[in-house]
Amino acid sequence: MGSNIRLKVAICGAGIGGLTCALALSKYPDLEIDVYESANKLAEVGAGIGLFPRPWKIIRALGLEQDLLRVTELGVTDGPVTSFRYRKGDQPWESADFHQLVTTGSLALLHRADYQQTLLRHLPRSCKTHCSKRLRSYSQRFSGTIELAFDDGSVAYCDVLLGADGLKSVVRKCLLGERARWAQSEGRYKEAAELQQAVDPVWSGTNAYRALIPAERLHARYPSHRALTTPVQYLGKRGYVLAYPISQGKLVNFVAFTCRHDLENTKFNGPWVSVTEKSQFMPYFSKWEPEVQAMLECVEKPLQWAIHTVRPLRSFISGRVALMGDAAHAMTPHQGSGAGQAIEDGYILATVLGHPKTTRDNLHRALRIYDEIRRPMAHRVMEKTRMNGRYYSFEFDGLDIEQLPPDQQWDFLQRMGKKFVKNWEWAWTTTVDDAVEEALKRLRHA
Ligand SMILES: Cc1cc2nc3c(=O)[nH]c(=O)nc-3n(C[C@H](O)[C@H](O)[C@H](O)COP(=O)(O)OP(=O)(O)OC[C@H]3O[C@@H](n4cnc5c(N)ncnc54)[C@H](O)[C@@H]3O)c2cc1C
C-alpha cells in the first residue's frame, strides 16, 4: 500500500451503485479503490432506466452529463416538463390521458448499458475493476483490516468494504450474520432473530415483464404510437404497462407489471429473473387498449422479473463495512428510484470517506454518519414507491373503480393522479445538497 494512501476502499459489485460510488470516490486522490465484480465482463441488463433530477444533479457533479445527453432521446431540461402521461389502459377502446406528470427538471431516460459504459469511460485507471471475483465472505480483523474471500480461492484486503452487490447481496448476508451473533452474545435474542430474517429478500407480489422494442417495428404497426416520442403509462386493475423511448429513439423500453399486492412478503416459487414467453402475461393484457396491443405484438423474448425487496434494515453498517444500493434497500420500481437511491448512497459515502478528517482510526464514525443520513431517506422512498404501485393498479380510497359510473371513474382517476404525484414529488422538488451539507457538518463537529 502506498504511504500517501489514506484509505483502501473495496467495493463489491460493479452495478450502477458500485460504479457511481467508485467514480465519486476517485475524485479523492488519497483513496485507493478496487471494485470486485462477480460477472466475467461488465454488461448491464438490456433495459431502460429513468433518472430523476435528484440523482441527475449528482451525475452532473461527477461530470457525466454531457456524455449521457448524447444517448438520451428526450434531452434534459431544468424547467417544468411533462415527464409521463397517464391513461386508463385496461379496456379494448382507446382512452384519454387522465393525468400528465409535470416535473421540475426532466426524467432522464437512458439505456442501462449506455450509463454503465459512460461510467466506465470516466473511471480513472487508478481505480481498478476486477471481473470474475465473486465475494464469498468477509471477515473484520481486530487490526482493522478486512479480509475478502472470493469463490476462486483468492483473497484481498481493504480498510473499508462497501457492499454494492445488489438484491442477493453476500455482504448483507455476512453483515447481518455478524450483527446477529453480537446481538445473540449479548442476550438480545429477538433482535438476533430479526436480523437473520432480513437476510433473504421477499417477493413484492409483483412481476415485471421487460423488453426493448425496436422503434421501427412499433412504428410500422402503429405510426402515431405515443411511446415512440413520449413516456407513457397505461394503468389498470391488477397491473400496468409503461413505455418510453431510449437510445436516441431507436428503442422503446417496455415494462408490463402484473400485481398481486395481497401476496406481498411471500415467497416466490420459481426463478426470480428468466427469459419467458409473451403467453406468460398476454392474458392479463389481452383486452387492453390498442396501443398496448401494438406493443405486445412487437415484444420478443421478454425477461420476467419477480420483483423482490429487502426488509427495512436496522442499520446499513457494521464496523468498517457498509451496504449501499439494492444490497441495502432493494425497493419496488414504481417510482423509478432504486438506481437513483443507489447513486445517492454512493455520493454520500464518497463525501464521508473522502473527507480529510476520515482516517483508518475513525472510519466507523464516517460510516455512522452515512447510515444516519441515508437509511431514513431510503426507507421513506421505499414506502413511497410501494404506495405508487398500489395506486397504479387502482388500489385507492378503498373504492373499486369497476363499480363506479363513468363520470365518477374519471374523478377517481384525477384524484388518484394528484395523490401519486404528491407522493412522488420529493424526486424533483428536493436535492441531495441538504444531505451532503448535513454529512459535512457532522464530520466537522465529530
Ligand atoms: C423492472 C425494473 C425497473 C426499474 N427501473 C428503474 C428506474 O427507472 N430508475 C431507477 O432509479 N431504478 C430502477 N430500477 C431499480 C434499479 O434497477 C436498481 O435499484 C439498481 O440497479 C440497483 O443498483 P445496484 O448497483 O445497487 O445493484 P445491481 O445493479 O444489482 O448491481 C449489483 C452488482 O453486484 C454484482 N454482484 C452480485 N453479487 C456479487 C458478489 N458476491 N461478488 C461480486 N459481485 C457481485 C452483480 O453482478 C452486479 O453487477 C428498476 C428495477 C426493476 C426491476
Summarize the structure.
The chain is of the alpha/beta class and 446 residues long.
Strand content: 15-25%
What is the CATH superfamily of the largest domain? FAD/NAD(P)-binding domain
Q: Largest sheet, described in full?
A: 8 strands, mixed
Number of domains: 2
Helix content: 25-40%
Could you say what the CATH topology of the largest domain is called? Answer: FAD/NAD(P)-binding domain
What Rg is obtained from the alpha carbons, in whole angstroms? 22 Å
* Strand runs, count: 19
Q: Which ligands, by name, code or SMILES, are bound? A: flavin-adenine dinucleotide
Query: What is the C-level CATH assignment of the largest domain?
Result: Alpha Beta
GO biological process, one term: secondary metabolite biosynthetic process
InterPro entries: FAD-bd, FAD/NAD-bd_sf, FAD_monoxygenase
Domain FAD-binding: 7-175, 311-384
Protein name: FAD-binding domain-containing protein
Structure description:
It is a single chain. The protein has 446 residues and is an alpha/beta fold. It has 2 domains: 252 residues, FAD/NAD(P)-binding domain (3-Layer(bba) Sandwich), CATH 3.50.50.60; 136 residues, D-Amino Acid Oxidase, Chain A, domain 2. Helices cover 37% and strands 24% of the residues. It contains 15 helices and 19 strands. The strands form 4 sheets. An 8-stranded mixed β-sheet has the order 5-4-13-14-15-12-17-16. The chain has a 6-stranded mixed β-sheet with strand order 7-2-1-11-19-18, sandwiched between helices. Helix 1 runs parallel beside helix 11, helix 11 runs antiparallel to helix 12 and helix 11 packs parallel to helix 15. The chain starts with 6 loop residues before the first strand and ends with a helix. The relative contact order is 0.16. The mean pLDDT is 94. The site of flavin-adenine dinucleotide has 36 residues, from helix 1, strand 3, strand 12, strand 17 and helix 10. Flavin-adenine dinucleotide binds next to helix 1, strand 3, strand 12, strand 17 and helix 10.
